[in-house]
Every structure is written in structure tokens, then in C-alpha cells.
Amino acid sequence: MTQVPSAEAALHFTVTDDDTAAAVGSGTLPVLGTPRLLAWCEAATCAAIDPALAPGETSVGTRIQLEHLAPSAVGQAVEVTARLAYADGRLRRFSVAARNVGPEGPGKLVGSGEITRVVVDGERFLSRISG
């Protein structure tokens, strides 16, 4: 595997009706649902790690710690960032953060936490699954 000196990524999303707590089954309010926030944070970690993967390698999530700190309304732009905080062998731990974005740029912190991923050989990983 080739190590990228600074593994980080920033992704941008806009909250839609499909992203709300009511739509994803995590509540009844028309605001960004925590499961969708988590999915966006995982997507950012994948975007950060993917350039460092060798052919045939992928990564799998193994641990998630996420605090959902503030609401985001439908139509709100959200920036999600992931930054490599720790690496040891195949293990990669990312700091993640999500912020509501306004005309002046990223603002109120929506969520933050850590996501751990492990680099694996995709075919070998799938071959261990008994079907």
C-alpha cells in the first residue's frame, strides 16, 4: 500500500427530504437524520483513504463514535470532512466533522467523532464470507 502523506477529504451535501430523520426511521422530525449523517461521514473517510489503496485493496469500517450536535434543515448545505488522525499497519482512524454551510462558508458544527477503517484485500475479504 502506498501511504498518502496527508489523507483527508471534504464532501458537500444538501439535506433533502430523503435525508431526514422521518425518512430514515430515526425520528419524526424533518431534519437531517443521524443515520444519514453517519453515512456521509463514512463516505468522507472512504474518499480520504481511497487514493492510498493499492489495486485490489478496499477498506471496511470497524468502529464509529459520532456525536450529532445540531440540526440541519431540509435545503441546508453541509460540509463533511475526514482527516487521518492515526495509522498503524492496516488500521486507519479518522477524525470526522460536519458543519452547516452558509454564504460565508462552514459554520455551526453539526457533528463530530472518529471512524476507524481497516485496509483489506477485497477478494480475500469476500471469500471468508460463508453464503
UniProtKB/TrEMBL annotation:
Residue ranges occupied by any Fluoroacetyl-CoA-specific thioesterase-like domain in the UniProt entry: 15-122
SUPFAM superfamilies, per the entry: Thioesterase/thiol ester dehydrase-isomerase
Protein name per Swiss-Prot or TrEMBL: Hotdog domain-containing protein
Matching InterPro entries: FlK (IPR025540), FlK-like_dom (IPR054485), HotDog_dom_sf (IPR029069)
Domain of life: Bacteria
